[in-house]
Amino acid sequence: MIQAEASAVMKWLFILSPVVCCLFASRTLFHYFQLESYQFPGFFRTVRRNWKHSLLPGLCASAGLMVIAALFPVYGVLQLLLSAALGLLIARLSSARHAKKKFVYTSRVKRLYVVHFLVMLLISWGLAQGVAAPLGLIWPVFMPLIVALSGLLAWPVEKAISECYFRDARRKLLSNPGLVRIGLTGSYGKTSVKHILGTILSEKYPTLITPASFNTPMGVSRAIRENLSPSHQIFVGEMGARHVGDIKELCRLVKPTIGIITSVGPQHLETFKTIERIAKTKYELIDALPQEGSRAYFYNDGAICKQLYDKTAKPKVLCGRDPQTCDVWCDNVSVSSQGSSFTLHINAKGSVDCQTRLLGEHSLQNILLASAVASDLGLSLKQISHGIAKLQPVKNRLELISRPGGFTIINDAFNSNPIGAKAALNVLKAFPQRRIIITPGMVELGVDEAKYNRDFGRAMKDCVDIAIIVGKSRTKPIIEGMKEAGFADEQIYRVDSLDDSTRLLHTMVRPGDTVLYENDLPDHYQEA
Predict the structure, then answer these.
(1) Mean of the per-residue pLDDT values for the chain?
(2) Where are the beta strands (DSSP E) in 376-471?
(3) Cα→Cα distances 260→48, 102, 295, Å
(4) Pairing of the two strands 399-402 and 180-185
């Protein structure tokens, strides 16, 4: 009897050992899952892109467990503790040392870990029976698939929980019938327009904008539930999208009466596949606006945004540089390394001279859109001008930083795209003396990613004196484009990491230099 009980305990310790080990060792995969907003297509793309970092934890766990089993064939508490220590060691060695977006043990992650534990326990128990017993220490090699399976099994529960938060946020938002609800989307510029609009509208109204890049249904729901108060008169919700239908879902939450499309471009082509699908998704915002009492705002880019404006039958406003076609425009533009000055014209109200610290002529596009909305919501030209003068650069978006060493940094490290990168180069071109760029290139541009990066390299001509290119295979098209444009080898430096670029920069930077940081890839896009 005692021998049978001891044998049962040993068997369960044998079953639990790989489970405990993998519970810790799978940390990197859970981080990838979190970085991809728990979306399965994105998770599998990340696993494929980082296949070494994704497979090594499982392989190391399986190999380590076999060594433990060989050294201690009779299972006891010691073997279980050694398995746990092995998992912790693998997690420590495989996790990003300087993660830009750290792994957060949210309530969702904790629930996912519980499901993951139960799934692994069932797998380990099943394989420990009879002829399958020898496979009991091999299954960890399939850890990426097991994490995905755990996420799939947890999905119905998470969907139910998120729907509860979603409905509560919508109830709170709609409980104030006088609240003006604004939705804005675009391939680029939406976060900047959100902050500009919030600053200008605050000259007259208590305004709530969604913080940082809270632009998913759960992010916007959280912002509403935690920050919206009865005193707010305007709510501005940023709406991000990676798939067709994403904006429609956000509109189901916000129920906007004002819609702003900042741009349509080749951002997230990796998931959308075509520009047409991107345009269709952005236009979901305009489709969601009510027929009566709504208004849509577009920038006249002479391309897709203008086409969307032309097909819109609802009340609409066009902003741009052409006074013949636009309702809101600007002229007398003067752009420098210190900001911009211009004359703002609004058809219904007249004109006013404005000044802003925001860098680059492309910032005027964002200001025009925000000014058009503010004017229609009752702000005077004087109030709009005051708001424009107060504008501050958004963090990591052409943010000007003076360093004690006498050189200047332009921090444009957030989500670079072809249009934004071109605008950043034009800003850099306006600065005197040596101009240095540090960039890993652009991502999420689908099959044309190499082409866009090659064009980016070519565009650096006449804007850049020294280029520090960060990365391995992805940066080859950038360097090819630079050489095609006539860059000499001594102007181009390639390094493996951002830390390496910083060390290199400190050996060459001089007082008076300007350094542009263009894009900072998220952790799951870093090359091994």
Answers:
(1) 89
(2) 399-402, 408-412, 435-439, 466-470
(3) 36, 32, 9
(4) unpaired
